[in-house]
Amino acid sequence: MTSDLQGVLDEVYEAVRPIMGGGSVADYIPRLAAVNPDQFGIAVMTTDGERFAAGDAAVDFSIQSISKVFSLALVMAEDGDEIWQRVNREPSGAAFNSLAQLEYKRGIPRNPFMNAGALVVADHLLSLTPGEQSPVLEFVRAESGNPDVSVDALTAASELSHSDRNSSIAHLLRSFGNLTNDVEAVLARYVDQCAIAMTCEDLAAAGAFLARRGVRADGTRLLSSNQARRVNAVMLTSGFYDAAGEFAYRVGLPGKSGVGGGILAIVPDVCSICVWGPGLDGSGNSLTGMAALAELTARTDWSIF
Length: 305
Ligand SMILES: NC(=O)CC[C@H](N)C(=O)O
What we know:
Blueprint: H1 5-16, H2 30-33, E1 41-46, E2 51-55, E3 61-62, H3 67-79, H4 100-104, H5 115-128, H6 135-144, E4 150-151, H7 153-160, H8 164-175, H9 183-194, E5 196-198, H10 200-206, H11 208-211, H12 225-238, H13 244-250, E6 255-257, E7 262-267, E8 271-276, H14 287-299
InterPro entries: Beta-lactam/transpept-like (IPR012338), Glutaminase (IPR015868)
GO molecular function, one term: glutaminase activity
Protein name: Glutaminase
């Protein structure tokens, strides 16, 4: 398969070209609203370490909610199943920043990938690794092999100054006793991990431990094979908010989107894929990214279904 993979990526690029620039960039974080919407990139890293890319795969973008995969993996690596006392693993069928379910679920978020759940995971990680810097940054630097990966301070500041909604979610969690650290400290950590800037090439490499069933780039293990399988399962059921069903139907892979327009998708035992196009659909998922992954799984035998 990988012998003509470059050709397949070039075809996928051509197939999505007509819709490049479509969708709308996230405007509730002013810094993201300023991104040129006409860009599109795709990168693949195979479990053998081969890399393929097309389009704007070397351009930095804000990873946003894709960071939630790394924070969940780090919490599970450090503390096993503890996190599941504090967050469920059911699809929400709701927007990423919904707080409606939180009230009647008594402060237990539906899953770790909607903002409420990710804030609980960030809180848990903060307790495990106190300090200013989130271990997510160190982890993605190590896995991508790129020590220059960093937090875009302007994006973080931009989000922090428009964080009424996440702040409300955090306070509600705390009122139910499901946030142990200060709201401000958790929000700062969360916003920082979301504001990490990476390229498709770096992100595909950083996510490849999930294709390798938990084994890191240096050959050591972050997660057991069973834990990696479970992170992939939660990505499949909850990685796209109220479009998780649509993604399973069109693409058929575990994946995680971010409002920066990136999507990380995993083909267990084969490769990890990162696509990026800033324009979002109505559910907050990259329009071109979704289309590209649908084209890719239609041209390969990679869908898990
Ligand atoms: N879906 C996303 O990427 C959302 C992440 C963003 N930082 C937020 O909390 O709103």
